[in-house]
Amino acid sequence: MTKRVVFIVCLLSLVIASVYGAAAAPSAFKKAQADIIGKMGEIPKPSRAYRIGALEITLANPFWVTMKDGYVAAAKDFGFKVDVLAAPSESDTAGQLNFLETMVDKKYDALCVSPITPFNLIPGVEKATRKNVPVICVGTWLDEEAAKEAGAKVAALYSSDFEGQGYLGAKYIVDQLKKVGGGKVAIIEGLPGASQGEARKAGALKAFKESSAIKVVSTQPGNWDRNTALNITTNLIQAHPDLKGIFCANDTMALAAVEALKAVGKKAQVIVVGVDYIPEANASMKAKELDASVAQSPYLFGYVGAVAALKSLENSPLPKGISIPIALVSQSNLDQYNDWK
Predict the structure, then answer these.
(1) Is the entire prediction scored with pTM above 0.85?
(2) What are the structural domains, with CATH classification, of the chain?
(3) Is 14 left (phi over 0), alpha (psi -120 to 50) or beta?
(4) pLDDT-based confidence at residue 14 (cuts at 50, 70, 90)
Protein backbone atom coordinates (compact mmCIF):
# COMPACT_ATOMS: atom_id res chain seq x y z
CA MET A 1 0.00 0.00 0.00
CA THR A 2 1.48 3.38 -1.00
CA LYS A 3 1.94 6.24 1.45
CA ARG A 4 -0.76 8.15 -0.45
CA VAL A 5 -3.28 5.31 0.01
CA VAL A 6 -2.41 4.98 3.71
CA PHE A 7 -2.88 8.73 4.13
CA ILE A 8 -6.29 8.60 2.43
CA VAL A 9 -7.44 5.62 4.56
CA CYS A 10 -6.39 7.41 7.77
CA LEU A 11 -8.10 10.60 6.64
CA LEU A 12 -11.33 8.70 5.89
CA SER A 13 -11.18 7.07 9.34
CA LEU A 14 -10.92 10.45 10.99
CA VAL A 15 -13.83 11.79 8.96
CA ILE A 16 -16.01 8.77 9.83
CA ALA A 17 -15.13 9.08 13.52
CA SER A 18 -15.98 12.77 13.51
CA VAL A 19 -19.32 12.17 11.81
CA TYR A 20 -20.48 9.05 13.65
CA GLY A 21 -18.47 9.32 16.85
CA ALA A 22 -16.01 6.89 18.30
CA ALA A 23 -17.24 3.81 20.14
CA ALA A 24 -19.35 4.99 23.05
CA ALA A 25 -17.67 4.65 26.44
CA PRO A 26 -19.51 2.51 29.00
CA SER A 27 -22.02 4.43 31.09
CA ALA A 28 -21.53 4.92 34.82
CA PHE A 29 -24.02 2.11 35.50
CA LYS A 30 -22.38 -0.37 33.13
CA LYS A 31 -19.00 0.33 34.71
CA ALA A 32 -20.43 -0.21 38.20
CA GLN A 33 -22.20 -3.40 37.13
CA ALA A 34 -19.09 -4.91 35.52
CA ASP A 35 -16.99 -4.05 38.56
CA ILE A 36 -19.36 -5.43 41.19
CA ILE A 37 -20.17 -8.66 39.31
CA GLY A 38 -16.47 -9.21 38.71
CA LYS A 39 -15.84 -9.00 42.44
CA MET A 40 -18.41 -11.74 43.12
CA GLY A 41 -16.04 -14.31 41.64
CA GLU A 42 -17.02 -17.48 39.82
CA ILE A 43 -20.78 -18.02 39.80
CA PRO A 44 -21.71 -21.73 39.74
CA LYS A 45 -24.55 -23.31 37.81
CA PRO A 46 -27.36 -24.52 40.09
CA SER A 47 -27.00 -28.23 40.78
CA ARG A 48 -30.76 -28.48 41.24
CA ALA A 49 -33.92 -26.35 40.94
CA TYR A 50 -33.53 -23.83 43.73
CA ARG A 51 -36.26 -21.58 45.14
CA ILE A 52 -34.95 -18.40 46.70
CA GLY A 53 -37.12 -15.98 48.63
CA ALA A 54 -36.33 -12.27 48.82
CA LEU A 55 -37.93 -9.96 51.39
CA GLU A 56 -37.64 -6.24 50.75
CA ILE A 57 -38.82 -3.26 52.77
CA THR A 58 -41.72 -2.11 50.55
CA LEU A 59 -42.69 -2.11 46.89
CA ALA A 60 -44.45 1.23 47.40
CA ASN A 61 -41.07 2.93 46.84
CA PRO A 62 -39.54 2.81 43.30
CA PHE A 63 -36.14 2.02 44.84
CA TRP A 64 -37.35 -1.37 46.02
CA VAL A 65 -39.18 -2.06 42.75
CA THR A 66 -35.87 -1.68 40.92
CA MET A 67 -34.20 -3.92 43.48
CA LYS A 68 -36.82 -6.55 42.69
CA ASP A 69 -35.84 -6.23 39.02
CA GLY A 70 -32.26 -7.08 40.03
CA TYR A 71 -33.36 -10.21 41.86
CA VAL A 72 -35.47 -11.34 38.90
CA ALA A 73 -32.68 -10.65 36.40
CA ALA A 74 -30.14 -12.71 38.36
CA ALA A 75 -32.58 -15.62 38.66
CA LYS A 76 -33.11 -15.54 34.90
CA ASP A 77 -29.40 -15.24 34.13
CA PHE A 78 -28.31 -18.14 36.36
CA GLY A 79 -31.28 -20.49 36.25
CA PHE A 80 -33.16 -20.51 39.55
CA LYS A 81 -36.54 -19.31 40.82
CA VAL A 82 -36.97 -16.24 42.99
CA ASP A 83 -40.03 -14.84 44.76
CA VAL A 84 -39.88 -11.23 45.95
CA LEU A 85 -42.14 -10.04 48.77
CA ALA A 86 -42.24 -6.84 50.83
CA ALA A 87 -43.97 -5.15 53.74
CA PRO A 88 -46.93 -2.86 52.95
CA SER A 89 -45.00 0.23 54.09
CA GLU A 90 -41.50 1.31 55.09
CA SER A 91 -42.48 1.45 58.76
CA ASP A 92 -44.42 -1.83 59.09
CA THR A 93 -41.81 -3.74 61.09
CA ALA A 94 -44.27 -6.32 62.43
CA GLY A 95 -45.75 -6.94 58.98
CA GLN A 96 -42.32 -7.52 57.48
CA LEU A 97 -41.46 -10.04 60.22
CA ASN A 98 -44.74 -11.90 59.56
CA PHE A 99 -43.79 -12.18 55.89
CA LEU A 100 -40.38 -13.59 56.77
CA GLU A 101 -41.75 -16.19 59.18
CA THR A 102 -44.21 -17.31 56.50
CA MET A 103 -41.39 -17.54 53.97
CA VAL A 104 -39.37 -19.76 56.31
CA ASP A 105 -42.39 -22.07 56.60
CA LYS A 106 -42.63 -22.24 52.81
CA LYS A 107 -39.24 -23.97 52.75
CA TYR A 108 -37.28 -21.74 50.44
CA ASP A 109 -33.75 -23.01 49.86
CA ALA A 110 -32.25 -19.63 50.78
CA LEU A 111 -33.51 -16.20 51.81
CA CYS A 112 -32.41 -12.64 51.08
CA VAL A 113 -33.66 -10.02 53.54
CA SER A 114 -33.54 -6.23 53.89
CA PRO A 115 -34.66 -5.45 57.47
CA ILE A 116 -36.59 -2.24 58.15
CA THR A 117 -34.60 -1.85 61.37
CA PRO A 118 -31.57 -3.75 62.68
CA PHE A 119 -33.85 -5.67 65.06
CA ASN A 120 -37.26 -6.39 63.53
CA LEU A 121 -36.33 -9.50 61.51
CA ILE A 122 -34.08 -11.17 64.08
CA PRO A 123 -36.78 -13.68 65.23
CA GLY A 124 -37.44 -14.70 61.62
CA VAL A 125 -33.75 -15.10 60.80
CA GLU A 126 -33.32 -17.18 63.98
CA LYS A 127 -36.14 -19.41 62.76
CA ALA A 128 -34.41 -19.79 59.39
CA THR A 129 -31.13 -20.58 61.17
CA ARG A 130 -32.77 -23.39 63.13
CA LYS A 131 -34.02 -24.86 59.84
CA ASN A 132 -30.60 -24.53 58.17
CA VAL A 133 -31.84 -22.01 55.61
CA PRO A 134 -29.00 -19.65 54.61
CA VAL A 135 -29.84 -15.95 54.90
CA ILE A 136 -28.21 -13.10 52.99
CA CYS A 137 -28.68 -9.53 54.24
CA VAL A 138 -29.04 -7.13 51.33
CA GLY A 139 -28.69 -3.39 51.77
CA THR A 140 -29.73 -3.17 55.42
CA TRP A 141 -28.57 -5.45 58.19
CA LEU A 142 -29.24 -7.02 61.57
CA ASP A 143 -27.73 -5.73 64.80
CA GLU A 144 -24.73 -8.04 65.19
CA GLU A 145 -24.81 -8.38 68.96
CA ALA A 146 -28.59 -8.90 69.20
CA ALA A 147 -28.56 -11.40 66.33
CA LYS A 148 -25.74 -13.41 67.93
CA GLU A 149 -27.56 -13.48 71.26
CA ALA A 150 -30.72 -14.75 69.55
CA GLY A 151 -28.88 -17.35 67.46
CA ALA A 152 -29.78 -15.65 64.17
CA LYS A 153 -27.01 -16.27 61.64
CA VAL A 154 -26.39 -14.44 58.37
CA ALA A 155 -24.24 -16.01 55.66
CA ALA A 156 -23.22 -12.66 54.13
CA LEU A 157 -24.06 -8.97 54.02
CA TYR A 158 -23.96 -6.85 50.85
CA SER A 159 -24.59 -3.20 51.47
CA SER A 160 -23.38 0.29 50.67
CA ASP A 161 -21.70 3.19 52.46
CA PHE A 162 -24.80 4.83 53.90
CA GLU A 163 -22.83 7.34 55.95
CA GLY A 164 -20.88 8.19 52.81
CA GLN A 165 -24.18 8.82 51.02
CA GLY A 166 -25.22 11.35 53.64
CA TYR A 167 -21.81 12.98 53.54
CA LEU A 168 -21.79 13.25 49.74
CA GLY A 169 -25.25 14.78 49.61
CA ALA A 170 -24.63 17.31 52.37
CA LYS A 171 -21.18 18.16 51.03
CA TYR A 172 -22.78 19.17 47.74
CA ILE A 173 -25.00 21.63 49.64
CA VAL A 174 -22.00 22.96 51.55
CA ASP A 175 -19.98 23.47 48.37
CA GLN A 176 -22.82 25.33 46.68
CA LEU A 177 -23.55 27.54 49.70
CA LYS A 178 -19.88 28.46 50.12
CA LYS A 179 -20.27 30.40 46.88
CA VAL A 180 -22.80 32.69 48.58
CA GLY A 181 -21.25 32.83 52.04
CA GLY A 182 -22.99 29.84 53.64
CA GLY A 183 -26.38 29.74 55.33
CA LYS A 184 -28.93 27.76 57.31
CA VAL A 185 -29.63 24.11 56.46
CA ALA A 186 -31.88 21.31 57.70
CA ILE A 187 -31.97 17.52 57.59
CA ILE A 188 -35.07 15.42 56.99
CA GLU A 189 -34.15 11.99 58.33
CA GLY A 190 -35.60 8.59 57.55
CA LEU A 191 -37.31 6.25 60.02
CA PRO A 192 -35.76 6.56 63.50
CA GLY A 193 -33.69 3.47 64.24
CA ALA A 194 -33.40 2.39 60.60
CA SER A 195 -29.73 1.67 59.95
CA GLN A 196 -29.48 3.39 56.58
CA GLY A 197 -31.34 6.49 57.78
CA GLU A 198 -29.27 6.90 60.93
CA ALA A 199 -26.05 6.53 58.95
CA ARG A 200 -27.14 9.06 56.32
CA LYS A 201 -28.01 11.56 59.04
CA ALA A 202 -24.61 11.05 60.66
CA GLY A 203 -22.84 11.56 57.34
CA ALA A 204 -24.81 14.71 56.57
CA LEU A 205 -24.12 16.19 60.00
CA LYS A 206 -20.42 15.44 59.56
CA ALA A 207 -20.31 17.35 56.26
CA PHE A 208 -22.31 20.29 57.60
CA LYS A 209 -20.17 20.59 60.74
CA GLU A 210 -16.99 20.77 58.67
CA SER A 211 -17.95 24.28 57.55
CA SER A 212 -18.27 27.16 59.99
CA ALA A 213 -20.39 28.97 57.38
CA ILE A 214 -23.15 26.36 57.70
CA LYS A 215 -25.72 26.35 60.52
CA VAL A 216 -27.95 23.29 61.03
CA VAL A 217 -31.28 24.66 62.28
CA SER A 218 -33.31 21.44 62.30
CA THR A 219 -33.09 17.68 61.97
CA GLN A 220 -36.43 15.84 61.96
CA PRO A 221 -37.58 12.31 61.10
CA GLY A 222 -39.55 12.14 57.86
CA ASN A 223 -40.12 8.36 58.24
CA TRP A 224 -39.39 7.89 54.50
CA ASP A 225 -42.87 9.37 53.93
CA ARG A 226 -43.74 11.94 51.26
CA ASN A 227 -46.54 13.68 53.17
CA THR A 228 -44.51 13.87 56.37
CA ALA A 229 -41.59 15.43 54.51
CA LEU A 230 -43.87 17.90 52.75
CA ASN A 231 -45.31 19.06 56.09
CA ILE A 232 -41.86 19.30 57.67
CA THR A 233 -40.61 21.45 54.79
CA THR A 234 -43.64 23.71 54.94
CA ASN A 235 -43.06 24.29 58.64
CA LEU A 236 -39.31 24.71 58.17
CA ILE A 237 -39.62 27.49 55.63
CA GLN A 238 -42.12 29.30 57.86
CA ALA A 239 -39.84 29.04 60.89
CA HIS A 240 -36.69 29.83 58.89
CA PRO A 241 -37.60 32.00 55.88
CA ASP A 242 -33.88 32.37 55.08
CA LEU A 243 -33.26 28.60 54.89
CA LYS A 244 -30.75 27.76 52.17
CA GLY A 245 -30.49 23.96 52.03
CA ILE A 246 -32.25 20.70 52.89
CA PHE A 247 -30.67 17.24 52.88
CA CYS A 248 -33.26 14.44 52.73
CA ALA A 249 -32.43 10.83 53.57
CA ASN A 250 -34.21 9.57 50.44
CA ASP A 251 -35.58 10.93 47.17
CA THR A 252 -39.23 10.42 48.07
CA MET A 253 -38.86 12.96 50.85
CA ALA A 254 -36.62 15.23 48.77
CA LEU A 255 -39.22 15.42 46.00
CA ALA A 256 -41.86 16.32 48.61
CA ALA A 257 -39.56 19.06 49.91
CA VAL A 258 -39.26 20.41 46.36
CA GLU A 259 -43.05 20.52 46.01
CA ALA A 260 -43.48 22.30 49.35
CA LEU A 261 -40.90 24.93 48.39
CA LYS A 262 -42.44 25.43 44.96
CA ALA A 263 -45.83 26.01 46.59
CA VAL A 264 -44.49 29.05 48.46
CA GLY A 265 -42.19 30.29 45.70
CA LYS A 266 -39.00 29.41 47.58
CA LYS A 267 -37.47 26.61 45.51
CA ALA A 268 -34.89 28.84 43.82
CA GLN A 269 -33.67 29.89 47.27
CA VAL A 270 -33.24 26.41 48.77
CA ILE A 271 -30.92 23.63 47.57
CA VAL A 272 -32.55 20.21 47.99
CA VAL A 273 -30.61 16.95 47.80
CA GLY A 274 -31.94 13.40 48.18
CA VAL A 275 -30.61 9.85 48.13
CA ASP A 276 -31.31 6.85 45.85
CA TYR A 277 -31.56 8.56 42.43
CA ILE A 278 -34.92 6.99 41.61
CA PRO A 279 -36.43 7.67 38.13
CA GLU A 280 -38.67 10.41 39.53
CA ALA A 281 -35.58 12.15 40.88
CA ASN A 282 -33.96 11.97 37.45
CA ALA A 283 -37.05 13.58 35.90
CA SER A 284 -37.11 16.32 38.54
CA MET A 285 -33.43 17.06 37.99
CA LYS A 286 -33.98 17.28 34.24
CA ALA A 287 -36.70 19.82 35.00
CA LYS A 288 -34.10 21.69 37.09
CA GLU A 289 -36.09 21.33 40.31
CA LEU A 290 -34.35 18.73 42.52
CA ASP A 291 -30.72 19.88 42.76
CA ALA A 292 -28.93 16.56 43.29
CA SER A 293 -29.28 12.97 44.44
CA VAL A 294 -26.81 10.43 45.74
CA ALA A 295 -27.05 7.41 43.45
CA GLN A 296 -26.74 3.89 44.66
CA SER A 297 -27.93 0.91 42.65
CA PRO A 298 -30.98 -0.96 43.92
CA TYR A 299 -30.75 -3.18 40.83
CA LEU A 300 -27.25 -4.29 41.80
CA PHE A 301 -28.34 -4.80 45.41
CA GLY A 302 -30.91 -7.34 44.23
CA TYR A 303 -28.65 -8.91 41.62
CA VAL A 304 -25.73 -9.38 44.01
CA GLY A 305 -28.01 -10.65 46.79
CA ALA A 306 -29.50 -13.32 44.54
CA VAL A 307 -26.07 -14.38 43.26
CA ALA A 308 -24.81 -14.63 46.85
CA ALA A 309 -27.77 -16.82 47.79
CA LEU A 310 -26.96 -19.17 44.89
CA LYS A 311 -23.28 -19.29 45.83
CA SER A 312 -24.15 -20.12 49.43
CA LEU A 313 -26.34 -23.03 48.29
CA GLU A 314 -23.55 -24.36 46.08
CA ASN A 315 -20.94 -23.96 48.84
CA SER A 316 -19.08 -21.47 46.67
CA PRO A 317 -16.94 -18.91 48.54
CA LEU A 318 -18.84 -15.72 49.34
CA PRO A 319 -16.69 -12.62 48.82
CA LYS A 320 -16.59 -10.15 51.69
CA GLY A 321 -16.12 -6.40 51.78
CA ILE A 322 -18.11 -5.69 48.62
CA SER A 323 -19.90 -2.34 48.73
CA ILE A 324 -22.47 -1.23 46.16
CA PRO A 325 -20.97 1.93 44.58
CA ILE A 326 -22.37 5.42 45.21
CA ALA A 327 -22.07 8.70 43.31
CA LEU A 328 -23.34 12.28 43.54
CA VAL A 329 -25.54 13.08 40.54
CA SER A 330 -26.17 16.74 39.74
CA GLN A 331 -26.66 18.90 36.65
CA SER A 332 -22.94 18.66 35.92
CA ASN A 333 -22.97 14.90 35.26
CA LEU A 334 -26.65 14.03 34.79
CA ASP A 335 -26.14 12.79 31.22
CA GLN A 336 -23.77 10.07 32.46
CA TYR A 337 -26.48 8.54 34.67
CA ASN A 338 -29.48 8.29 32.35
CA ASP A 339 -29.42 4.47 32.39
CA TRP A 340 -28.65 4.12 36.12
CA LYS A 341 -30.84 1.63 37.95
Answers:
(1) no
(2) 28-159+298-324 (3.40.50.2300), 162-276 (3.40.50.2300)
(3) alpha
(4) very low
